[in-house]
Amino acid sequence: MVCFLSTVYMCQQDGQISADELQRCLTQCGMSGSYKPFNLETCRLMINMLDRDMSGSMGFNEFKELSGALNGWKQNFMAMDRDRSGTIEAQELHQALGTMGYNFSNQALGVIIRRHSTQGRIAFDDYVACCVRLRSLTDQFRRRDSTQQGTAAFQYDDVSIYLYKCVLYIPRPFCHTRN
Ligand SMILES: [Ca+2]
Ligand SMILES: [Ca+2]
């Protein structure tokens, strides 16, 4: 986390970290586990998820929360990668999601893998995007599933907001206008 802290220090002028700055930091730290830049879309999703004050960027407290979350995701990722290939494959994801209590059909699992993998392999930054989306989706669902029976009714408006906030990324000024 030394790299994180130095990035915060460099951003002291406004005390905020943008998605681009977060991407640079995570790439420099080697957090993606490859030579590719850390996925910018994942950076936007993470900032969106933890943006408690809705500033559109990451303040220090939000950043500390992200550090903890990233450590947890990294540990999970390494535990899931049973064959030590450095990526998560379909069978590994299937087992891991089951352990986490997610119960997806093969069809839903196929959609998740196609969305987040490259040639059937999910790298760490794409895995984080997957975790953020699943967490957000589960939170949204649980709020509507008042009887906790696994069924919920959604209005068109709810679905639109979710899709635009999390599944499809759109620029920040539009993200919180309906909350
Ligand atoms: Ca913020
Ligand atoms: Ca693997």
UniProtKB/TrEMBL annotation:
One Pfam entry name: EF-hand_8
SUPFAM superfamilies in the cross-refs: EF-hand
Annotated keywords: Calcium, Cytoplasm, Membrane, Metal-binding, Repeat
Main location: cytoplasm
Residues annotated as domain EF-hand: 68-103
GO cellular component terms, semicolon-separated: cytoplasm; endomembrane system
GO molecular function terms listed in the Swiss-Prot or TrEMBL record: calcium ion binding
Cellular compartments annotated: Cytoplasm; Endomembrane system
Protein name as it appears in the record: Sorcin
Taxonomic classification: Eukaryota, Metazoa, Chordata, Craniata, Vertebrata
